[in-house]
């Protein structure tokens, strides 16, 4: 006897495959949105947000998961579009009011998803082919994605449930590539993206991150996002007239020699950046709390100003983090004087903070 010839569309076009790809993509979206929201609040904290003091790896975790779930979503969304794109051009294009609303929601979902994923990918490579401010646009569009997904799911939920039920009863083989093969390929592509990009957030696995923009190599074995030359600070920070200004009830000026003469402490902390990479190191320097006490700023939130210019030329630190014994104005990295590109002569280092808030080339500390 010969097996009956299966009928219907190839596996990639079947509703059961589209529904399962959608479920996998939905998990990535939820994880990416929730971790991205927390990471955004860490980088651009609203007034009500309480900056966490521990664990020291919290930003490493949230931003690492955010990046890996985002890159995992890229092959899934491409497969999902390949599975459903004939539906996108079905006629009538507009039709009734409910269909019009569905088409608008679908367009918003596809456009916002592609925008988020591919601008996010370019952002971690630090290649900006646009004029808008990426964090604000990325943050706002995340809510567009969430809203469009909610509307799309509300409209399609009965069809998705039916597709899952029907798919479980269908033969596992269909003309050409099987359903299992399509889903396995999607899962494998997502996993490969996670390993080759997401491993940059786990120091022991850096070598696997062959597609990650930061390898862990650089001065003193630490990556560098912005060099001293790019920041335009070389002349200032090399000057023998360098002074650290403490602006408080007591005005204090400290030379580099005087900074080095203060009690020094060593801590092991990570640098974790928005691009997803993380590197741990031993940092030695003066506790921020000791500097605050010198200026009479005990219990105050502090502002750290850098010699560089631009959006991230300064950062603030809540008083609770100021009192943390691991918060340092670092003078050394892994037992050596800070390299110029790592913030010489002094930089901020503290637990559970995005890299952009670990201000380099600090020249002034005052009340926030």
UniProtKB/TrEMBL annotation:
Secretion signal, residue range per the UniProt entry: none
Pfam families: Oxidored_molyb
Transmembrane segments: 21-43, 63-83, 104-125, 137-161, 182-202
Protein name: Molybdopterin-binding protein
Keyword Signal: no
SUPFAM superfamilies in the record: Oxidoreductase molybdopterin-binding domain
InterPro entries: OxRdtase_Mopterin-bd_dom (IPR000572), OxRdtase_Mopterin-bd_sf (IPR036374)
Keyword terms, alphabetized: Membrane, Transmembrane, Transmembrane helix
PANTHER family given in the database record: BLL0505 PROTEIN, PROTEIN-METHIONINE-SULFOXIDE REDUCTASE
Domain Oxidoreductase molybdopterin-binding: from-to ranges: 234-365
Keyword set includes Electron transport: no
